[in-house]
Amino acid sequence: MTGTGHASMRIDTAAGSILCDPWVNPAYFASWFPFPDNSQLDWEHLGDVDYLYVSHLHRDHFDAAHLKRFVSKKATVLLPEYPTSQLEDELRALGFTKFFKTVSDEVHELDGGLKVMIQALISPTDGPIGDSSLWVEHDGVRVLNQNDARPTDLIRFTELGHVHAHMLQFSGAIWYPMVYELPQAAKTAFGKQKRERQYDRTWRYIDDLKASHVFPIAGPPCFLDDELWQFNDIHGDEGNIFPDQSDFIREYAKVGGTNGVVLLPGSVSTLTADSCETTHPVADVDEFFARKEEHLKAYQERQRVVIEREKASWSHPEIDVLAGMKARIEPLLEESVRMAQGVGGPVRFDLTDPAGELVESILVDFPNKEVRIAADEKVRYRFRTERRLIEHLLHIDEGDWVNSLFLSCRFSAARIGQYNEFVYSFFKCLSEERLQYAEGWYESQRPDAEDITVGGWSFQRRCPHLKADLTRFGIVEGDQLTCQLHGWKWNLATGRCLTSVGHEIRSEKAGQPEQAPAA
After folding, report:
1. Could you tell me the pTM of the whole model?
2. Where does the record place the Rieske domain (predicted)?
C-alpha cells in the first residue's frame, strides 16, 4: 500500500493494482489542499493501474483534472451502487469506459482471485448523495478503506474475516463551528466538543473492527489562502477541528492504541497476515510533523499563484444573480414537499463585494416557494459570502452548493434556533435528479416498530437521524438520549430532538402503561 495523500492510496497485489481517491489539485474554491503536499509524486506511474476506486463525489476525493490527466483510461472503475448515475456520468466524461458495477455489501471476485466489496451509503446526508467504503482481499490478507464514510456499524466487514489494515477518517471535514457568527469562546467550546466527538467515533469504529493495523487517513486538509490560514491546526487552538496524523497517534495512545500507522505521500506499507513493514520518504515522521508550520509556509508559497489564478476565474459580472437563483431554485421549491416543510422558513444570502461590503440580499422563501430580494423578514438561516462565488456557481451550473460553497469555508453563517439538516440537504440537491431522490428518501423514512429499554426509558431502536442502532450508539443520562454516531440528542420525556428541527423519537418511561385513547 503506497500512501498518495489525504484519503488516497495505491493498493498493489499479485492480482492487480487499485488506485483510490487520488486528489492533488485544490478543492472548494481553492480552500482545501492535501497535506502533506503530494504533487511531486510520480503520478505517471501511480496512475498506471488496473482498477480505479472513487469513493464519492466530494472534490477532495474526485479530482477531475487529475483523473483526466494522470489515471490510465484502461483502468476498470470499481463503481459503488449509488441511486443516481452522477459518479459514473462524470467519470465517463473524463474518458473512462470500463466499469465494474458492484452490488452494495456483496463480495465480487475479480481476475486472479482479487476480491472486493463496496458498501454504499445512500442517504441525502451521506457525502454529496452517497459515500462508500472499499474492502479488498487477496491471498488471505484483507484491507478496509473506510475513508470518510460513516456506516452505522462495521458488522458486514467483520463477517468476512479478520481485517489486517483499517483506513479511516479521524479529522474534521466540515465548516462548523468556524464560520458561525459566535463569540470566540463559544466557537472554541463547540470546536472542542466536535474534536472530541470525532475521536470518540473513530475509537468506536476501531473497536468494532479490531484490525491488526490502523491507518489514519482522509484528513485533514490544509488551508493555504491567507484568508483561511487560521483554520490550520498550528495555533494551539483546542477548538480546532482539523487535527493531523501525529495528533491522532498521540490521542490513540491515550486510549491504549499501539497499532497506528501513518502513511505520508510516498510511504509504503508491505502488509501480510502477520506483519506490516512501513518505509517513509522522510527520515523521521515525528520531526516532519513537528515542523508542520514550516512545511505549510513553503507549500503556501508554491501554491500562491494557483490560488490567485483560481480567484481570478470566479467573477462573472454578466450574470444576474437574482435571476439565476430564481431560474435554478424556484422550480425545485415547487417540487419540494418534505425538505421545504423541514426548512419551514426563509433563508437569506447576503452577498458582498471582495472588500466585504454588502451589495445584495436575496431571500429563498421556502414556505412561499419563491426567490426574491430580501426585505426585513426574520430568517431561519443567513449566509454571508462574496457575490462572485454565487456568480461562479451559476456560471458552472453547480448542482451542489453544500459541497462547493459551504465546504470552502468562504462564508459566515447565523441561524435562529437549532441546526436544520433540511437547509443543507436542499442546497445539496439543486438538480431534478437529486431533489427527487432526496424527497423520496425522506418520505420513505418511517419509525420502525422495534423498541429497546436503556436507563429506565423505552424508545425506538433506530436513531431518527440516520438509523444508527441505539443499542450500540445510544447513551442515556437522566431523560436525555445521545446518539454518539453524530452527537444528536433527544429529550425522552417529550420525544423532541434537541439538536435539529424535526426528527422526533418515539419514547416513554420504561414500564409505563400504554394510555387508552381519548373518548
Report:
1. 0.88
2. 459-519
